[in-house]
Design goal:
This protein has 54 residues and is mainly alpha-helical. The protein is built from 2 helices and no strands. It starts with a helix and ends with a helix.
């Protein structure tokens, strides 16, 4: 999932350089959502691992 967040970030940067503001904004938004989703899954995974080790 982090791969897709980084992929959309790269697409957003390339589209921003080329002046395609609509595509850049959409790609940046998707990358941001995927990044925070990945971060939430990471935190949940760490909590579950901590609970199982007790």
């Amino acid at each position: 999932m982090l791969y897709y967040a980084l992929l959309f970030l790269v697409v957003a940067v390339v589209a921003g350089v080329l002046g395609l503001s609509g595509i850049a904004g959409t790609s940046a938004g998707i990358a941001q959502i995927l990044f925070f989703l990945f971060l939430a899954f990471l935190v949940i995974s760490l909590i579950v691992r901590a609970i199982r080790s007790v």
